[in-house]
Backbone:
């Protein structure tokens, strides 16, 4: 294997084979770390602006609408860890549970195969949980295995590509009125739900959120994409319970 491409790990999962690889991009003159699902790109460390924004906008929205500091947080989807790192940079955060269905991704962090792994593992506020986020959200037990029914100030989700383009069959139920209503039982009274989407804001989905939550809006997040010689716009959807 050449020094310009290296497959760091390759694992079978319930949704297909995933791999962690590092490759050199000659156009950019830099190495890129990325996670693949089969031949499909899941994430890379080249584009992290919106993953970070999911954290910063979600926590800010809680302060804006709830009038208090967000203390207890859940993230659905670990990925390369940029959302989790941004959450932990907020000194008011007391606890962070990161729920991911793919054990290899958790392992890569715990084995320091990913750049942010050591920092996340080393922060006593942060705990990784290998579980199906969507199944847990639809249940009554809650996200914390140690405290049944525990509620959280902010729940942030970055798993599917968009609300209607899903990583795995069966996820679609989460985005229905019934699924989103069920999610609210895991939030504190003025708790916030934040959702990452790969596409620009969708007025129909924003209206759908507004029909379920007390308040909801879409925040466009734009950044430069050197492969397209222009900007890309993604979305952070924000919604508040009660």
Residues:
């Amino acid at each position: 294997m050449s020094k310009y491409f290296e497959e760091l790990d390759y694992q079978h999962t319930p949704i297909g084979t995933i791999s962690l690889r590092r490759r050199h991009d000659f156009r950019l003159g830099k190495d890129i770390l990325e996670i693949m699902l089969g031949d499909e790109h899941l994430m890379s460390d080249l584009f992290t602006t919106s993953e970070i924004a999911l954290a910063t906008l979600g926590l800010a929205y809680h302060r804006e609408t709830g009038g208090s500091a967000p203390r207890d947080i859940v993230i659905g989807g670990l990925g390369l860890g940029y959302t989790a790192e941004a959450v932990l940079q907020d000194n008011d955060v007391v606890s962070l549970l990161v729920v991911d269905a793919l054990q290899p991704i958790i392992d890569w962090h715990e084995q320091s195969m990913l750049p942010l792994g050591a920092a996340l593992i080393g922060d006593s506020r942060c705990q990784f949980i290998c579980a199906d986020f969507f199944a847990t959200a639809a249940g009554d037990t809650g996200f914390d295995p140690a405290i049944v029914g525990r509620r959280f100030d902010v729940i942030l989700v970055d798993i599917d590509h968009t609300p209607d383009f899903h990583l795995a069959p069966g996820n679609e139920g989460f985005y229905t009125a019934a699924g989103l209503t069920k999610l609210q039982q895991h939030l504190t009274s003025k708790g916030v739900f934040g959702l990452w989407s790969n596409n620009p804001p969708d007025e129909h989905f924003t209206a759908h959120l507004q029909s379920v939550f007390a308040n909801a809006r879409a925040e466009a997040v734009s950044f430069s994409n050197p492969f397209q010689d222009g900007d890309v716009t993604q979305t952070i959807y924000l919604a508040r319970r009660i």
